[in-house]
Model the fold of this input.
Amino acid sequence: MKKMGPVPADPVSTDQVTALRRFNRYFTRRIGALDDHYLGQDRPLGEARLLFEIGGKGASLRDLRARLGLDAGYLSRMVRALQTQGLVHVSVHPGDSRLRVAGLTAAGEAEIREQNRLADALAEGLLGGLDARRRAELTTALDTAHRLLRLAAITVETVDGASPDARACLDAYAADIDARFPEGFDPATLVRPEEVSGEAGAFLVAYEEGRPVGCGALRRLGPRAGEIRHVWVDPGARRLGLGRRLLDGLEQRAVERRFTVVRLDTHAVLTEAQEMYRACGYTEIPRYDDNVYAAHWFEKRLPAAR
Amino acid sequence: MKKMGPVPADPVSTDQVTALRRFNRYFTRRIGALDDHYLGQDRPLGEARLLFEIGGKGASLRDLRARLGLDAGYLSRMVRALQTQGLVHVSVHPGDSRLRVAGLTAAGEAEIREQNRLADALAEGLLGGLDARRRAELTTALDTAHRLLRLAAITVETVDGASPDARACLDAYAADIDARFPEGFDPATLVRPEEVSGEAGAFLVAYEEGRPVGCGALRRLGPRAGEIRHVWVDPGARRLGLGRRLLDGLEQRAVERRFTVVRLDTHAVLTEAQEMYRACGYTEIPRYDDNVYAAHWFEKRLPAAR
DNA sequence: CTTTTCCTTTGACTAAAGTCAAGGAACAGC
DNA sequence: GCTGTTCCTTGACTTTAGTCAAAGGAAAAG
Done:
């Protein structure tokens, strides 16, 4: 086999940087500004944002502080202001009486509805300037941009298999497939943390704005063989190409461990996953394990470590 | 000929509104915020924006006030602040000594350069999260969105042919084609205002954010025939589909005047224009006028007024 | 049953952003 | 040359946004 050349350089072209900045400038000035100014109405922006963030479901002050990045004192006062305006009500958290939960009153909900109506009208007016074909084109372009910007912001990191983020992902994964497998899923068959740490394997978590939204595990099957397991992507982060990123990351970790091959299995119902594996260079092989949930087995030969 | 049905309704779907709002929310939060916060550095945002707006070419305080929408007093003080920091210099306008013109000092320019460097680095970091293929896809999507958002914001209005905006467009048009025609162009052959007003004809100007960026004239050729002339789009607003919008608008005005046909001519070098006319349903006809600049003549039959 | 940590409130600030009105200099139209 | 308008500056505010530290009640850790 021919030795591969160095990985081709992948520099960001200045044209692309310019395009992003140009768009950014235009968009924030024309659209963002509109939104904020018109929507704020006669309410200070901070309050409007807070009201919006509390939203229909309500939220604890602690969450609001984290989400909006506000100072505790500042938030406390703003909530009080909204409260005296009759827009929110505040109560003690049932489980932990240190926390306070804010929720919208009827008046607060009416205000949110009105804000939404205004924003919709604004967006509609903007879109109304285009004919149906162009409008569809714009919508597609915005969706594509949204998807790719999100993907660009997601980072994949190696974490300890016992870390809370890893466990959270595995729990979500287990719940997810328990719902999808006709026979359910027994969480006891998940990898153990020691299987995916150090030289034995690896555990990857994908983070979007600090929140774990995907994971994947690599464990040793033999001296030169690894197994990829539990590749999972949060429903809210699907169709971004994240599964592929996780798979790539796991293969890279496998190469680092001098594995020459990685295998994996999938359940019969996970057809999209099977398609992804095929598209990523995996070929179907005979059963190699006794996983009761598996119906298809794949493997991929890996290049040697550089 | 079969009578045409009513123009199909062209409502904006809620999905499209949602997509725009979703993108807007995501983008302003993730990208816009980044930009502003990081770029402001240790300088208040107002000052940073002002510095940027003054830019390389400098600007009068009056312009700055209009562009940034600031109070006169507020601006005056901010400029003074930048001046004492050695970032801008202020001088009296040569033509009108009521006006003051602000320009960047060397230090001011250095700061702008640094801001640009930071913004570029930020954009580059963001794009770096994607592979080359996806990056190209994102760039295309952003360009498309930018183009369509601009187009959506452009309004086409009927104005008096003698108005300053109309004259400005015609002057720009004349200068434009004077440069493109090998034999030059004599502005005396432009339409006269009385030819394009009232029942005789119409003059349309396209506005982008208040600035005229395109025009088109319709004048009467005979009892049932009109002529379209001077369809022009500012170089900065080309490739948006604006020419077509102007043409549509002029045809609509022609229908309102019960013209059954519109004609137009074009110069040999204006090949894109010829293509547009063909694409819009115009067919080439023999010479119908004695315009010395014309090499191709077109016409289009119009539907009856509703 | 302490000690520590967490969550919120309150008081006391500051900086930024913006508003309003008075007034002076310069210009434009008559 | 007079009058009204435009452009800028200045003084005197207000609101918004945010910071910091002290303190108290509640939960978690030891």
User: Anything to note?
Assistant: Residues 60-62, 65, 72-73, 75-77, 80, 96, 98-100 of chain B lie near DNA strand D (CB under 10 Å from a C1'). The mean pLDDT of chain B is 89.
